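Q: What does the assembled structure look like for these inputs?
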Amino acid sequence: MDTRNASLPGVVVDIRHKDYRSGLRTLEALHFRAGPGEFVALIGPSGSGKTTLLKIVAGLDTRFEGQVARSPTARLGFMFQEPRLLPWLTVEQNVGLVLNALPPTQQGALRAHLQELLTQVGLQDFRTAFPGQLSGGMQRRLALVRAFVIRPELLLMDEPFLSLDEPTAEQLRRQLLVLWQQTGSTILFVTHNLREALMLADRVLFLSPRPAHLILEQPVPSPRPRTMAQMAVLEQQLLHQYPELLSGVLHE
Amino acid sequence: MLVLVWQLLAGWLDSRELPGPRQVAASFREYLLDGSLLFHLGMTLFRVLCSFVLAMLIGVALGILMGSRSCWDRWLDALLILGLNIPALVTIILCYIWFGLNEVAAILAVALNKIPSVTVMVREGARAVDQGLMEVAQVYRVSRRDTLLKVYLPQLYPYLFGAARNGLALIWKIVLVVELLGRSNGVGFQLGIFFQFFDIAGILAYTLAFVLVVFAIEALLLRPLEQHLNRWRS
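A:
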């Protein structure tokens, strides 16, 4: 494996293959790039290795053949399937933990921005609360703030709104878009919800079942804000256009 | 209530083997005023503290190592089982023979008796560490210091407290044996003297002093600290 220094921000993924220790091949010939500030959604059946892919891009998993090129000094954010907050730290301390990890010269301005971010997602009155005292939706919002507070150049999101009720998920998606437009982060967003991908992304990449590779690349040119009704139409068009291709991807 | 039963029983038996609370209190006052009680208690507390700190440091380090690295776990496991099961008296006698009848040997003997059980508890904790949270620290490049103090160790606190409580309880008991066998001061030594003179009131007076110290440590140190560290659970 090799994590090269890219001259451009954004990320270039060139994975020849990734095998589990059991010998099971989970990714094969997976190549794509995300430009600076681009919002790319990755969609594929569950168990197709989407989480593994994000771990490889994050540098958490280095046992693969191929290379991932991103700036090694770029600030990286990761929003996991579970909020993964530290239960013994308050809301503010949870965010402070990742702020403190930045070089001191970068911290000042971002720290000043923190209160604004908390207010933006409605957590301003919970600064000294512990995660256990927050609702599931609030915990996700805190994880969202933690991911954005460092103004990440690259943000990886692994089905971050899974198991939320639809209104809460919808609210979080709107907040995500606002934050993304403010920071200009490059985002890789993994999901298995096609409508969610169409709502959010500039481009949707469809992954095959295991071993995962790209089977379709679909730009979403509609201007934001997009409505669910528009996206439902687009979704139907796609399903109509590529029925056999997407049947295995979306209805497993 | 307990004191009342004790008083009644002692009055009814009226023997030297079971002095009543009043005699014990008198004995307690006497040894307190002539300074001997505080001196011996102080020596014992000093040894307890030294061996406790030593045992916790080594035990926690070993426990984390064994809980997070399976190769170390395999290598050290046999030694751990040996350590857990070797009788305290054997360690004590061997330490005195090998290192001489001195303070270092005494403290070492106590610590050696305690280390294995600390290691076992902390190893459980280290095995249960949430890898998901460790990944968060890694992705956001949290410093080693913050990762240790804010992400890793808080997950071990319940195990560390368990080890500390158990540890104190065990160390009290062993320190006295060590003192009885090879030291010329401390509560254990003094209890040996009382035994020779058949001074039951003296033995109970020292026991009383001991109980007071144990309760004080629990109420003033361990419990407040634990409450502070657990405030997020409420």
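Chain B has a mean pLDDT of 91.
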